[in-house]
Design brief:
By secondary structure, this protein is of the alpha+beta class. It is 26% helix and 28% strand. The chain has helices spanning 14-26, 68-81, 124-133, 146-151; strands at residues 2-9, 31-37, 40-43, 55-64, 97-103, 108-110, 113-115, 159-163. Strands 1, 2, 3, 4, 5 and 8 form a 6-stranded antiparallel beta sheet that branches. Strands 6-7 form a two-stranded antiparallel sheet. It is globular, with a radius of gyration of 15 Å. It starts with a strand and ends in a 5-residue tail after the last strand.
Length: 168
């Protein structure tokens, strides 16, 4: 099934962090081609501490055959490997943040995991890169396409293209 993973970074060399996370995501055992990658966007920090740096955000869509909790555990291991502490204040600055946006048509609400991501339809910094990879998709729990959600978004956050390609 298709899985979308959001990547974000606002500490250190943000683009290097995204590239490293991308490479590690593609090494996950149950992740396979085809891979779709959004552009990289620079976005205002949302709900972070005062003086936080701007984020770089992107989305990867991959083929995944496995359990949602296994994918989450693999993503959390990548975050740890790239310097994000396992315990951190919510919405604090971070070297890397990896979130499962959707996993096929699955809806999962359990301790520590929510799929689809509960606020993705409200956040321009998620919708813009997601629209690059699957603009016509209608996500579980939604009635409008990703492109329509982005066009109708009331999120005032500034989201600008930072890089067209980031696989090198």
């Amino acid at each position: 099934m298709r899985a979308a993973i959001a990547l974000g970074s606002n500490l250190g060399d943000r683009l290097v962090q995204l590239r490293a996370a991308r490479a590690l995501v593609l090494e996950i055992e149950n992740v396979a081609e085809p891979v779709q990658a959004s552009r990289v966007y620079e976005t205002e920090p949302v709900g972070t501490e005062n003086g936080a740096n701007a984020f770089l955000n992107a989305v990867l869509e991959v083929e995944f055959c496995g359990e949602p909790d296994a994918l989450l555990a693999d993503l959390q291991a990548i975050e740890t490997k790239l310097g994000r502490p396992s315990r951190h204040p919510r919405n604090s600055s971070r070297t890397i943040d990896l979130d499962i946006l959707y996993l096929g048509d699955l809806v999962v609400q359990a301790e520590g995991i929510a799929i689809p991501h509960p606020r993705l339809h409200e956040r321009r910094f998620v919708l813009a890169p997601l629209a690059d990879v699957c603009p016509h998709a209608i996500l579980p729990g939604q009635t409008k396409s990703v492109a329509d959600l982005l066009a109708e978004s009331r999120d005032p956050a500034k989201v600008d293209v930072f890089a067209e390609k980031w696989d090198a």
